[in-house]
Amino acid sequence: MIVAMQDRASEEQIQYVIDQLVRMGFEVHRSTGALKTVLGGVGSQTDFDTREIEMLAGVQEVHRITSPYRLAGRNFRPEGTIVKFANGLEIGGKNIVVMAGPCSVESREQLFTVSEQIAQAGARVLRGGAFKPRSSPYSFQGLGLEGLKLLREAGDRFNLLVISEVMEISQIELMLPYIDIFQVGARNMQNFNLLRELGKVRKPILLKRGISATFEELLCSAEYVLAGGNYEVILCERGIRTFETYTRNTMDISAIPIIHKLSHLPMTADPSHGTGRRDKVAPMARASVAAGADALLIEVHHQPDKALSDGAQSLYPQQFADLMGEIRMIAPAVGRTIA
Amino acid sequence: MIVAMQDRASEEQIQYVIDQLVRMGFEVHRSTGALKTVLGGVGSQTDFDTREIEMLAGVQEVHRITSPYRLAGRNFRPEGTIVKFANGLEIGGKNIVVMAGPCSVESREQLFTVSEQIAQAGARVLRGGAFKPRSSPYSFQGLGLEGLKLLREAGDRFNLLVISEVMEISQIELMLPYIDIFQVGARNMQNFNLLRELGKVRKPILLKRGISATFEELLCSAEYVLAGGNYEVILCERGIRTFETYTRNTMDISAIPIIHKLSHLPMTADPSHGTGRRDKVAPMARASVAAGADALLIEVHHQPDKALSDGAQSLYPQQFADLMGEIRMIAPAVGRTIA
Amino acid sequence: MIVAMQDRASEEQIQYVIDQLVRMGFEVHRSTGALKTVLGGVGSQTDFDTREIEMLAGVQEVHRITSPYRLAGRNFRPEGTIVKFANGLEIGGKNIVVMAGPCSVESREQLFTVSEQIAQAGARVLRGGAFKPRSSPYSFQGLGLEGLKLLREAGDRFNLLVISEVMEISQIELMLPYIDIFQVGARNMQNFNLLRELGKVRKPILLKRGISATFEELLCSAEYVLAGGNYEVILCERGIRTFETYTRNTMDISAIPIIHKLSHLPMTADPSHGTGRRDKVAPMARASVAAGADALLIEVHHQPDKALSDGAQSLYPQQFADLMGEIRMIAPAVGRTIA
Amino acid sequence: MIVAMQDRASEEQIQYVIDQLVRMGFEVHRSTGALKTVLGGVGSQTDFDTREIEMLAGVQEVHRITSPYRLAGRNFRPEGTIVKFANGLEIGGKNIVVMAGPCSVESREQLFTVSEQIAQAGARVLRGGAFKPRSSPYSFQGLGLEGLKLLREAGDRFNLLVISEVMEISQIELMLPYIDIFQVGARNMQNFNLLRELGKVRKPILLKRGISATFEELLCSAEYVLAGGNYEVILCERGIRTFETYTRNTMDISAIPIIHKLSHLPMTADPSHGTGRRDKVAPMARASVAAGADALLIEVHHQPDKALSDGAQSLYPQQFADLMGEIRMIAPAVGRTIA
Q1: What is the separation of C-alpha D39 from the centre of its chain, rounded to a whole number of angstroms?
Q2: What's the CA gap between A334 and A337, in Å, rounded?
Q3: Cα of A243 to nearest chain C Cα, Å
Q4: Rounded CA gap, B276 and B247, in Å?
């Protein structure tokens, strides 16, 4: 922590700040300039609130120079994390992985139709919601256990891994036999109790960035899972909230290279939620690959006009197949291939 | 729902949109102008996604004209909701209620010292966290059950009601014997499973606006609780995330008159979290009262430099007493008194 | 400037950074901890870009510890600036000044009707646009010189000072004989050429915060005027752009105490533009006074339904008179009176 | 315009709204449902403020269904605009054009060195600032006329067109002999007086999106230029302001396909300002091409550590050459080639 004192700070004020820093466990270095005294607090703590010092008399400003996360930081594993699955698939390696499927599991017929088509086009992971977080209490809330069973069956039939969203602690046990990756949605990115429980699980967690979460907050949330001993965390950009309302969210493509710099965890992109509009999914999926994404999550539905949720952002199977062709052309520009 | 067709939309496209609206349960009115056809979909549904129509061929834009919430809307109870407690205190009535206390319950000595001082200054409700949502897994996470017992004891001793935050479903049962109001924090505003369970409880819920939640989303979340049969919901502004980083959040004072217009539920303000800085709490508390707030939540600590959380935004007891004097002067300008 | 080096930074990298800092004119202090080296660059420059250092090899992060403005900072005049007018009116002193009038000057009849009513209710400054910045090229663009003359005449008749917006350099000369305060609108807050010219004028400038301007940027823009020798600058909050679209802008009431802390310049509030809705003007005007505003700008129109611009946010004269009564009650709570 | 009346709106209120719409020049269609009356106002006006109706008694909400711009809309020229230059270069056609160069023109040696290198790598337009908008009055403000002359000379020598920023009306005449494209910076996007003057010029205008400008506002600003008779307008995304501060701005890649849908004007991207960090320029440049950009603007400097402005976001010439290779690989995926 660096503390810049005000130009007129008294010696007494400076001493009080030093005492507080020492009490918080820091070793303190002092630089005294003509006008300004600057204090550097050095130590290995990550759990402190810089505002505690900021509010002291005579302090001008305070900056923390260590990140509040440790295990999620690039330094912890400079070579990067590759999440490996039993069938040989890897996320974070040389190949870019495409995960696709409907927003919600609606019926066996729907799920199997879509699964077959995405598998043929080259997807390797099947996505689909069994439990749905809906902003209205009157909306379709998912098929639950029945949906999980269908996902597993479709995944096995078409040789796809399965990812699905977990919304609360009691669902973890229920989902464990049926899915390969737990997805934590944007609204739960700071559901710390849920994250702590997922740290005890031994399956990968795909953690989506909250719509107003900073990169630091995203990595702090990943830290909750990692600190529990589960090191297989995959991060995902899915759009942030800005002043612009033409799209549902503004997809922050720059999050991809930034997270790659700050963290060793694989970074993926969800252009379906990132834009909320079918006609913008393909351009943003291509942009994500061009910016270095390790995987894509894409919603596909064979009859989007009849989807029970998010039909407006679901691609038709043919659009998805076309997109697969486009990203196969782009991947070599970033030294990658499609898995 | 209003659907504006593109200027060149074909009759076939228009018919397809009409068919979809009918399928969704709407009665359709059609206005054909020289250039433009506009379709009005009228009905009593609240659960639909306008983007489903927006994506159809020939559609220019779609607007919903009914809110997605019903029970939370002002129309449902035009005279406004007053939440009444056994000791005669009312939130949403003529009197403005002040809730105060430390961020976290840290010890008996701390809690009793602060409680006595805020009660003397005129607070009527004691706030204090027993379970703490912390962005870092390494931070102090609260005293849990021990904290709840201390809160009840202090509340009873100094004649204060007690409010404390609930973070997950399993805590509800635990908290029920000790607290008078359940607080749902900003990060859990869209934890729909938690909200649904709180709809079954028969104690008031104070629901804080998420840091990037629209008014519509806040009222949809309130709807989850109301739809469960618990009509005693109190809303709270506690700052939103904007581009400005000087303060932790930007407190949106305009939320107070806006929520009063859109909803019948009492609207309160938390200037401590809204600003994150002790020196900005009093101006924003005064502003909240001047804008019509029904209650205030204010963090107070007798030794904020030693607080285990959020000391930087906690008032000293004397500052709190001064503030009480100021808002007693302001309340009559909005036809209110301090409870 | 404080430079935190990465944990593994080499001695060579550290030396290169030190050399660059010296080249930029800083005296450098070095603190070497077990893990981390921190460099403090001390000097009196204000014109540098911290990113130049941030991009160097081995650097983790950089913080500036001096503000990029000098003359606008509170340190420059700790006792605060009071802008004084020939008729004895003061902005920034003990009295709160109310400026009111129509959005645009539309006609003699309109202007004189409104001016008389606001003067009776207690306004001391007449506002009104002669040149209008309009986002559409097809909108009413103001009466120009004719409007200026009417403003002067109405001001003289009803004993009101006159404020009006200047949009480009060529208008300064034209406006000088007719107005008492130049207003710079939010869209021109970073029109640096205009600001530089206004630094040469010897009349006060009311500078509005841009809708996405940080406090630092606002004060840098004020610095342009001050650096030209015009020290009579008045700042104004008029709403910022956030994700919420219910109101046109989100009025940041906290800007008032924050600017008072950072700068010596008077700080005022414009709740008409800050909310864009007539029914929210009074609550936000009251909140501004409660938060410590030195003056208010309020749009008033006797027939807002017929206004050529911004009728939706203009108060009826009776609403304005009622509001004056309310703020007279609030002012004493912050140790002020209404001018 | 569509007006949804409140459920309890009286017949008198409905009639008053109809009268106002007629007064504003609309033909009115009325749909009366069981609960709700909806009014459709149809006409060819573009200059009205929906809030005027929104504030009337009995009105629930109002939506405009025609855009406030005409000439900038896709409908005006569905096939798209191609801006053509005398040397055969086209922006908006099949080829993607790369514009590159230093942030500021600093000296003949600097400009010629950079120009040669970017020309060799494949750039077709030379960018460079002669007049610089700087947030601090103490920063380097550009070489002015001298800079313009150097730009022209370098452009002619290396067979590059020249683009440079115009900041105020008086500079237009001065720049005309030296440059091929006028650039309007983000801070001047709503400098309507400047835009109006540029409408009279017969050279292309590259108009950058303001950091908090909606798409509608960007197109309204383009309309000012088009309405003056200058149809050669090129739009540019250069980052918007969001809550995230890790990058200077958040580059909104989705703006590219969105503007292509809403408007016929070519859409370009400036990843240098869009990110503010050298290491993020290449990923975002690649993403822009993958998303369909018609041109790129990229800052390049042979000695960025010594640049007088924005060195931190300038690529080294070798990095620029590498990037050219990458985008040449990506362009075919979107059916394009590099000019």
Answers
A1: 35
A2: 9
A3: 4
A4: 6
Q: Do C291 and B292 touch (CB under 8 A)?
A: no
In this structure, what DSSP letter does residue B159 have? T
Instruction: Identify the weakest region by mean pLDDT among B271-285, C40-54, C276-290, D265-279.
Output: C40-54
Mean predicted confidence (pLDDT) in D310-328: 94
Nearest to C36 among A42, A61, A63 (CB): A42
Residue carrying the six token digits 């932790």: B248
Compute the distance between CA of residue A131 and CA of residue D257 in angstroms, rounded to an integer: 32
Domain limits of chain D?
A: 2-63, 74-338
Question: pLDDT tens across D148-189, in order?
Answer: 999 999 999 999 999 999 999 999 999 999 999 999 999 999
- Per-residue pLDDT, averaged over D45-60, amounts to 82
Contact D333 A244 (CB under 8 A): no
Q: Which chain A residues are within 8 Å of B227, Cβ to Cβ?
A: 137-138
Topology of the domain comprising C2-63: Alpha-Beta Plaits (3.30.70)
Instruction: Report the neighbours of C using a cutoff of 3 or more CB pairs below 8 angstroms.
Output: A, B, D
Q: Is the pLDDT of residue A45 over 80?
A: no
Sheet strands (E) in chain B: 2-5, 27-32, 37-42, 59-63, 83-84, 90-91, 95-101, 125-127, 161-165, 181-184, 205-208, 233-237, 267-269, 295-299, 337-338
DSSP letter at C315?
B
What percent of chain B shows pLDDT beyond 70? 98
Residue of C nearest to B281 (CA): C254
**Of the partner residues D42, D44, D63, the one whose CB lies closest to the CB of residue B63:** D63
Q: Whole-angstrom Cα distance, residue D316 to residue D97?
A: 19
Query: How high is the ipTM of this complex?
Result: 0.91
Residue A34 has a pLDDT of 67
Q: What's the pTM?
A: 0.92
* Residue A296 to chain B, least CA–CA distance (Å): 22
**DSSP-derived secondary structure for A68-113:** S-STTBGGGSTT---EE-TTS-EESSSEEEEEEE-SB---HHHHHH
Torsion of CA B110, B116, B122, B125, to 10 degrees: 60
**Which of B280, B292, B326 is nearest residue C333 as measured by Cβ atoms?**
B326
- B61 vs D29, D38, D65: nearest CB: D65
* C293 within 8 A of C91, measured Cβ to Cβ: no
Q: Give the mean pLDDT of chain A.
A: 92
Please choose, from the candidates B189, B149, B181, the residue with its C-alpha nearest in 3D space to the C-alpha of residue B162.
Answer: B181
Lowest mean pLDDT among C97-101, C131-135, C205-209, D249-253: C131-135
Residue of C nearest to B242 (CA): C242
pLDDT band at D34 (very low <50, low <70, confident <90, very high): low
How many whole angstroms separate alpha carbon D174 and alpha carbon B247?
Answer: 44
Token pair in block for residue D272: 């240098």
CA nearest to B280, candidates B236, B250, B259, B235: B250
- CATH code for residues D74-338: 3.20.20.70
User: Quick check: C136 and D68 CB within 8 A?
Assistant: yes
Are D190 and C133 within 8 A, CB to CB?
A: yes
The first and second tokens of residue B160, run together, are: 């204060």
For residue B2, the chain D residue with the least C-alpha distance is D2
In the predicted model, is pLDDT for residue C34 greater than 70?
Answer: no
